[in-house]
Design brief:
Length: 421
Amino acid sequence: MSEHFRVHGGARLVGEVDVVGAKNSVLKLMAAALLAEGTTTLTNCPDILDVPLMADALRSLGCEVELEGDVARITTPAELSYHADSEAMGKLRASICVLGPLVGRCKRAVVALPGGDAIGSRPLDMHQSGLEKLGAKTWIEHGCIVAEAEGLHGAQIWLDFPSMGATENILMAAVLANGTTVIDNAAREPEIIDLCLMLTQMGARIEGAGTSTLTVHGVTELKPTEHRVIGDRIVGATWGFAAAMTRGDVRVRGVNPHHLDLVLEKLRMAGAEVTVYEGEDEGFRVVMDGRPKAVDFVTLPYPGFATDNQPFAIALSAVSEGTSMITENLFEARFRFIDEMIRLGADARTDGHHAVIRGVEQLSSAPVWASDIRAGAGLVLAGLCADGATEVYEIFHIERGYPGFVENLRKLGADVERVSS
Ligand code: UD1
């Protein structure tokens, strides 16, 4: 029997919520542990399914992995298997992030290709062409991506688009290459900075983290390290939008507010009062009095508005006063989620990669289906602003990204329960 969420709309979210480590950082950092023999320790790991899946995937390559609370200890052997095509790898959407480390360390890799994704096609051409520039040959065979190199050498690489995944894989291969690699038009996301920081602690020589030009001077060996995973800015944004939509007052802790500068600015434009906190107690507070005002959103690579936050922008627009235009520039299929929003009474139309949403005073509860992590969370936020009980199905998607989602919502005063379907 599966479970789903039942969301009774109407509550104003009030209180404090803690954000854990970023899903999009921890998996790459776990993969980076492959680059050094010995025990690497990661703290602030989120309690989400992808972490034990990644642990199994690393075990299948010969690592010992211990998970205890929010700590992951990964012991990497001198000799690694380069066959990342086990069952565990197949289940992991982010499996592709072991490609770069395996090529760097073993000079070869066979990595199971992740399955289709509801948010749209996920090509790997830039991962492949980047690794080829470093001296590897790559091809697709029996559902796997295969890479082989005699030795890796530094190279000048221009990315067509600042892809996070391609930047990470090229970076993790380049740190052990012979000579200097320059990655131009590199991704600038905070999770890339987090990875650069950990690699640098391991002995890598990287310049330009957080800018669009990364210069990597290859070294012969890296050593294990201890590193704290950065707070999840997408989860942080989810709570910010939830506060604004429910006309609430929420203090979010455990995330760098500057990773959310644009999100917080958009919430201010929608009428929220936003306070940011730095240092030990970093985070932010969103207070909303009255109905949000319509704001436009355009998704772009960081520091633009993250595509992962787009469903929350749509949910907010659906209940705002006025008309919003949302432009999706990264994953075309992400607008499929709008059909579920329409089921909840949203007045929305899409045309190509634009959506126009005319805000309504209140949404109307209905059964809806989550198609990916963020779309699922967006539907729960919409349910908080609907009359009656909204049933959200396929919640395993949501739980891949939000540890303790229902518990946190309830703590903030939402009337949400997990029920058997
Ligand atoms: C990561 C995040 C995902 C987020 C996305 C964009 C993880 C596990 N996932 O995914 O949550 O939505 O960044 O911020 O960290 N592209 C190509 N060729 C390539 C690679 C990418 O055309 O070789 C395109 C993609 O189709 C997409 C764009 O580049 O349109 C950005 O993708 P990318 O940044 O690579 O996303 P991921 O790293 O897969």
